[in-house]
């Protein structure tokens, strides 16, 4: 038997592949299972057009088994198999995708998508293997073949006596001692976890022998027995009909996926079938994750391509100000690169992200309108992030966010939106007034607030540092500017009143000059105020920056 060499470029590619394309070894299990699923899909497609092939869903499965003594992991499928020629072409040439060719030949479009397209997934097996054996029998051939390779020197092909159509891939695991061990791929529980994680939504059953406790016959005792089970759940919840799903189903999914320990306040189930196709389930959590407002926190949604997990946290799908959203996106239309782990920053992904952003925004708006109690729970946990959103990026996002903001207010002992504030404004009120302070209690005692309240104007209470920065970025809401009750010019007086105060001020000029002389550089100016009622004096800031902001700015690292 002569050994055939991989093409020169293949050799180099293989080396690169094994060492650098994939970030985790366990990925090879996903790739081999995806290939098995593709092979069964191809049977399905052939059956659609060829009457001599029957496709009975129950006859098709993928079986994963391991042998601790031989140190092998085996993945078997009942798919279309490969002829000698196909073995040569698909496994003898790296970057040759039989699946891509199949899709083109058979003009496979729509729903059921075949995963393969790059022609490198198979070789990921060499991340964990020092030898791979492929036994395969094509439905188009009476003779089966065995392909074998150690990944470096080339491969052999010889006839085999495999009877049934399909492919069996045996991965002989490397044994580099304790430091670099591959034993994990022999462990039942580890394999189960990997299959669940990446291949849970493969459409065909992935079978595996698992150890279960069974009661012994005629006895109280139990015994360990091996039982073949289907490991994957096959139909992803997002492919199911919304009408058939209950809130409970979504909550279970939230917890199964470990999106959070809390109960989500809302879920959104999206199925888009337009220029871009994708499904998504999004959740708005109730409680702030412990690391949410820290640099440890990683935003992102799970990303699937045709039901196969590509990325656990794809950050590009969410804007920072919606980083609290949990959930997943599945799309057949993404251009993935060969490792499937890095996405090209492509148009499709951006479109999906844009779409998701507007869905989340709409959902929050409708919550604010129709489910105030839950919205306030949400806002208590994540409102700060929305305000950061208005402030950051030079306020580019303020249009998206301004209607979602809530503030404490003098009018009601609850959070109010800016729209609600505007609606209550008396006709003669020109500004949206606000006051900043450490707590509502302290703000209520501010001398500056009294006069504004006396006029019958509502005041927004800013208790968080970001509040004032955010509204400075917004400048106005619905055509009304924001004005701090501590700013110099409150503009509450009529022309006549203004004239009168000017006169009083000049009458007492001497007194003010003397006071300024005593205080020196501690104040910029001492002047007459009309805004005081029960307090003798108050401090105000000049211009745009209020005293509260000055305090924060002074604390910031320069
Ligand atoms: P891709 O899946 O991206 O096409 P792979 O390197 O994973 O690339 O596989 C290369 C090709 O080998 C596949 O396109 C397919 O034609 C063939 N192949 C791999 N595994 C199987 C299998 N289990 N059954 C049938 N054909 C297979
Ligand atoms: Mg593949």
TrEMBL record:
Keywords: ATP-binding, Chaperone, Cytoplasm, Nucleotide-binding, Stress response. It comes from the Bacteria. It is found in: Cytoplasm. Residues 24-177 form the Histidine kinase/HSP90-like ATPase domain. Residues 485-507 are annotated as: Disordered. ATP binds at residues 31, 35, 77, 82, 90, 97-98, 117-122, 167, 340. Residues 496-507 have a biased composition (Basic and acidic residues). Residues 1-340 are annotated as: A. CDD domains: HATPase_Hsp90-like. GO terms for molecular function: ATP binding; ATP hydrolysis activity; ATP-dependent protein folding chaperone; unfolded protein binding. Pfam families: HATPase_c_3, HSP90. InterPro entries: HATPase_C_sf, HATPase_dom, HSP90_C, Hsp90_fam, Hsp90_N, Ribosomal_Su5_D2-typ_SF. GO terms for cellular component: cytoplasm. Belongs to the heat shock protein 90 family. PANTHER family: HEAT SHOCK PROTEIN 90 FAMILY MEMBER. Homodimer. HAMAP family: HSP90. Molecular chaperone. Has ATPase activity. This is Chaperone protein HtpG. It comes from Alkalicoccus saliphilus. The lineage of its organism: Bacteria, Bacillati, Bacillota, Bacilli, Bacillales. The gene is htpG.
């Amino acid at each position: 038997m002569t050994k055939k060499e991989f093409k020169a470029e293949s050799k180099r590619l293989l080396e690169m592949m094994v060492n650098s394309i994939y970030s985790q070894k366990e990925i090879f299990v996903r790739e081999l299972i995806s290939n098995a699923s593709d092979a069964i899909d191809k049977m399905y497609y052939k059956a659609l057009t060829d009457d001599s092939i029957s496709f009975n869903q129950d006859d098709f499965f993928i079986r994963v088994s391991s042998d601790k003594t031989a140190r092998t992991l085996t993945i078997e499928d009942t798919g279309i198999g490969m002829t000698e020629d196909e073995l040569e072409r698909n496994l003898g040439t790296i970057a040759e995708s039989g699946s891509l060719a199949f899709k083109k030949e058979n003009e496979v479009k729509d729903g059921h998508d075949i995963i393969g397209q790059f022609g490198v997934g198979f070789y990921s097996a060499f991340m964990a293997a020092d030898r791979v054996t492929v036994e395969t029998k094509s439905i188009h051939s009476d003779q089966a073949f065995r392909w074998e390779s150690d990944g470096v020197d080339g491969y052999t092909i010889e006839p085999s006596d495999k009877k049934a159509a399909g492919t069996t891939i045996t991965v002989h695991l490397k044994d580099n001692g304790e430091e670099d061990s591959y034993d994990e791929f022999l462990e039942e529980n580890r394999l189960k976890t990997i299959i669940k994680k990446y291949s849970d939504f493969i459409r065909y059953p992935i079978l595996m022998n698992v150890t279960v406790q069974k009661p012994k016959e005629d006895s109280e005792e139990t015994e360990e027995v091996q039982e073949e089970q289907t490991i994957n759940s096959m139909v992803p919840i997002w492919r199911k009909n919304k009408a058939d799903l209950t809130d409970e189903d979504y909550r279970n999914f939230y917890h199964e996926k470990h999106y959070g320990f809390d109960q989500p306040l809302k879920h959104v189930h999206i199925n888009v079938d337009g220029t871009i196709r994708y499904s998504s389930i999004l959740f708005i959590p109730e409680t702030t994750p412990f690391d949410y407002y820290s640099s440890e926190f990683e935003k992102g949604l799970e990303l699937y391509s045709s039901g196969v997990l590509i990325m656990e946290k794809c950050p590009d799908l969410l804007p920072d100000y919606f980083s609290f959203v949990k959930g997943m996106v599945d799309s057949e239309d993404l251009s993935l690169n060969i490792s499937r782990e890095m996405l090209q920053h492509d148009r499709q992904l951006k479109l999906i992200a844009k779409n998701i952003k507007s869905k989340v925004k709409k959902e929050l708006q409708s919550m604010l309108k129709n489910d105030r109690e839950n919205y306030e729970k949400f806002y208590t946990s994540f409102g700060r992030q929305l305000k950061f959103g208005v402030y950051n990026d030079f306020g580019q996002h303020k249009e998206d966010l301004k209607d979602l903001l809530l503030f404490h207010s003098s009018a009601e002992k609850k959070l109010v939106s800016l729209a609600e504030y505007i609606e209550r404004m008396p006709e003669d009120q020109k500004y949206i007034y606000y006051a900043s302070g450490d707590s509502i209690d302290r703000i209520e005692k501010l001398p500056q607030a009294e006069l504004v309240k006396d006029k019958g104007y509502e005041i927004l209470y800013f208790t968080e540092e970001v509040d004032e920065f955010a509204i400075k970025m917004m400048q106005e809401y619905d055509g009304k500017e924001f004005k701090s009750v501590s700013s110099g010019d409150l503009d509450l007086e009529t022309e006549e009143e203004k004239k009168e105060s000017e006169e009083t001020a000049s009458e007492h000029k001497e007194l003010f000059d003397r006071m300024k002389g005593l205080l020196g550089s501690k104040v910029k100016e001492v002047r007459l105020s009309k805004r005081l009622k029960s307090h003798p004096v108050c401090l105000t800031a000049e211009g745009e920056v209020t005293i509260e902001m000055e305090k924060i700015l002074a604390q910031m690292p320069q």
